[in-house]
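User: I'll paste a sequence; please echo it back and then give the predicted structure.

Assistant: Echoing your sequence first, then the prediction.
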Amino acid sequence: DTMSEVNFENLLSTGAHFGHVTRKWHPAYEPFILMERNGVHIINLEETLSGLKKAQDFLTQVIKKNGEVLFVGTKKQAKDIVQQEADRCGMFYVVERWLGGTLTNYSTIKKSIKRLQMLEKEGSSIYEDLTKKEIQMLNRERVKLADQHRGIKDMRRVPDALVVVDANFESTAIQEALRLEIPVIAIVDSNTDPSVVSHVIPANDDSLRTIQLIIGSIADSILEITKNIKMIWLKKNMKKISSNKPISINSFFFNNMHAPKVFSIQISPSSLMGRSFSPFSGNKPPVYVNWLFSL
């Protein structure tokens, strides 16, 4: 079992229990406060552990239904961790500034992503018969869009859950999720109203090591579930694989590559051995089936 165990000791060692100075507290945060020490609120780590456990159980249900998760962390301490962990478990992320409407006005964001894909396409007809200056302007637009949509470029629909670092800092994202009734899992510190978050993980949201520990653990549990789903599928299809009959592979297993959700293809297993293949043409991402033999 690869899941890095989050326990009382390692939470303590990362300083997860330090809240904000008492005058900055949000009164609704009271259930998560253990005590006050030197003018600082100390967060009850038992609550942190049970919050994390509940969040992971909830995510298990989401992933089993082939759901997608969007990680959000745009503040300095969170950015790198959030991008790295979301990438590692094959989910989406927003680490540059949150564009208002990313969820509530998703169709517009989608148009913008389409535009980006058009600009990124090699030999795109857009670039024909343009002056140097016009090409330069398009390049500038491409770089700007690529930066804005990094992490959600392959998101084809609104996500099924959000994982947020610092519910206070990401209030816009959380408000949008609330309006669309998308559940939110968040690391919530003592200066924040926890009632806007459906799955609260009370902890110090300014500590790099705390963020790494909690978000890493969430990514682990997502990976664990996708791996189990693959194993179950393999067990079911093992006979076919060994007899080299064609297997139809369902999109379900490509969720790490964000493939479209509804295609099903027939391929012969021997052509899979250690190789990757792509059922797509054009500029769609390739889909790798290496995992079949690299579990």
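The radius of gyration is 22 Å. The longest helix spans residues 208-243.
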